[in-house]
Amino acid sequence: MIGIVDYNMGNLASVINAFKKVGADAKLESDPSKLSQYDKLILPGVGAYGDAMDHLKSNGMDEAVIAYAKSDKPLLGICLGMQLLFESSEEFGTTEGLGLIPGKVVAFDENKFDHTLKVPHMGWNETFQMRNEKLEIRNDLFRGLPDDFYLYFVHSFHAVCDDRYAIGKTHYGYEFVSAVQNNNIYGIQPHPEKSHENGLKIIENFAKL
Q1: How far apart are CA 178 and CA 195, in angstroms?
Q2: What is the DSSP string of 146-177?
Q3: In terms of residue numbers, what domain contains 125?
Q4: Number of folded domains that form the chain
Q5: Are 187 and 82 spatial neighbours (Cβ–Cβ below 8 Å)?
Q6: In the chain, where does DSSP find H-type helix?
Q7: For a pLDDT cut of 90, what percent of the chain falls above it?
Q8: Nearest-CA neighbor of 193 among 94, 99, 96, 79?
Q9: Confidence at 10, pLDDT banded by 50, 70, 90
Q10: Cis before 44 (ω within 30)
């Protein structure tokens, strides 16, 4: 069973429907004490970083997610959920995150944009996979997808981290990290549940980890 962390941040119906479409069982979970019963965990999220952390901390869900990450079972953060995996965010001042992946979340630097680009970054954009330099293999999260493929984005902030944690990058004004992995912990900035066939393939791959 796959658990979806329910902490009052975003519409979760599309995430549940995506798992149903690939034949996987997924359930919303708002009780921190029950996270450990799930085989895999999704940390979704839409909205402001600080509000999300406040919601997670209000009932100890933040500590429960951190404990789950230490269990070596697969954890996937989606959009804001991915950003929460990092150590901090600069959105509306500095806010401490879950600290599961070294790095931080920053605003898009619009000084590097041309006049045609706007923030938030919204719509379809190309993501490319970063291969394992030693083994030359695709990351399991992207198995069956080409080197470059399109996913749907909605965000104004992005992660900054060492390339050893980056498994996908995207170009919007400049190149930024759009997918990460730290052992059993995965994160993806775009919304796979809104990205049609490519997104469903990512959902299916995660369900099979």
Answers
A1: 14
A2: -SEEEEEEEESEEEE--GGGEEEEEEESEEEE
A3: 2-207
A4: 1
A5: yes
A6: 13-21, 49-58, 61-69, 80-84, 196-207
A7: 92
A8: 79
A9: confident
A10: no
Instruction: Specify burial of residue 121 (Cβ count, 10 A radius: 0-12, 13-18, 19+).
Output: buried
CATH number of the domain within which 96 lies: 3.40.50.880
Note the pLDDT tens digit of each residue in 20-39: 999 999 999 999 999 999 99
Q: Quick one: pLDDT at residue 136?
A: 53
Mean pLDDT, the chain, whole residue set:
94
How many residues are recorded in the chain? 209
Q: Which amino acid is at 82?
A: M
Q: Read off the pLDDT band of 190 (50, 70, 90).
A: very high
What average pLDDT does this structure show over 180-198? 97
Q: Is 29 helix (H, G, I), strand (E, B) or coil?
A: strand
Catalytic residues: 79, 191, 193
The label of the residue with tokens 């952390």 reads 53
174 has which bridge partners? Answer: 172
Q: Which is nearest to 128 in space by CA: 160, 161, 86, 171?
A: 171
The answer to whether 139 touches 181, Cβ cutoff 8 Å, is yes
pLDDT band at 134 (very low <50, low <70, confident <90, very high): low
- Does the pTM surpass 0.90? The reply is yes
